[in-house]
Design brief:
The protein is mainly alpha-helical. Helix content is 64%, strand content 0%. Helix 1 packs antiparallel against helix 2. The protein is globular and about 30 Å long.
C-alpha cells in the first residue's frame, strides 16, 4: 500500500481537477480524500458522490 501523497491539513487548495489528476496517476486514496473534502462543502453534488462511491469500490477490490 502506497503512502498518501497529500494530507488534509496541507495548506493547499483542493479542486476537482486535482482529484482527477491524482486518480489518473494512481493516487486513489489522495483523490478520494479530495473528493470527500469537496463533497463536504457541496453534499448535493451527484458527480462527487459517484466518484467517491466508485473509488471506494475500487479500493475494496484492490485490498481483497
Amino acid at each position: 500500500m502506497k503512502a498518501n501523497f497529500l494530507r488534509p491539513e496541507d495548506d493547499i487548495f483542493f479542486t476537482r481537477t486535482m482529484a482527477e489528476v491524482l486518480e489518473k496517476q494512481g493516487h486513489i486514496e489522495d483523490a478520494l480524500m479530495i473528493y470527500r473534502i469537496l463533497a463536504g462543502s457541496n453534499p448535493e453534488d451527484a458527480h462527487l458522490a459517484e466518484r467517491i462511491k466508485t473509488l471506494e469500490e475500487k479500493g475494496r477490490k484492490k485490498r481483497g
